Amino acid sequence: QVQLVESGGGLVQAGGSLRLSCAASGRTFSNYDVGWFRQAPGKEREFVAAISRSGTWTYYADSVKGRFTISLDNPKNTVYLQMNSLKPEDTAVYYCAAKPDYGLGYYKGEYDYWGQGTQVTVSS
Asked: For residue 5, what are the β-bridge partners?
């Protein structure tokens, strides 16, 4: 079983950048495809991006395509989410999640393991 810990959230002005990290322990990311999700107050948790366990394939929500980049550092057993050109509507708690089954799913129910989340706040 894998444990996930997110970090890197914070307060940033619109147009700024943040890099979120998701560190795994217990098992390596070579056993999982990984996704980032976010949840704003009063809204459903929504898909942001996903990456295959090899790091070869990525998939993004339309709302972040061209602004966010997901990447995998296997030696560090960490997945990153680089977020550029941030907008106030990107404000949310961001979660990373892992799934042992192959496939870059965008449905949260496909993911078995979740971190505790990290808050991202973008001011206008």
From this structure: 23
Please give the Cα distance from 123 to 14 (Å, whole number). Answer: 6
Half-sphere exposure of 75 (CA within 13 A, CB side): 0
Distances (CA, A) of 92 to 12, 68, 102, 121: 12, 15, 27, 7
Mean per-residue pLDDT pooled into runs of 10, the chain (124 residues): 96 98 94 97 97 95 98 96 98 97 90 97 96
Residue type at position 44: E
At a CB cut-off of 8 Å and minimum separation 6, what does 121 contact? 10, 11, 12, 91
Structure tokens at 15: 């147009």
For residues 18 and 74, is the Cβ–Cβ distance under 8 A? Answer: no
Q: Is residue 118 classed exposed, middle or buried when 0-12, 13-18 and 19+ CB atoms within 10 A define those classes?
A: buried
Distance (Å) of CA 49 to CA 24, 65, 105, 106, 121: 17, 9, 9, 8, 18
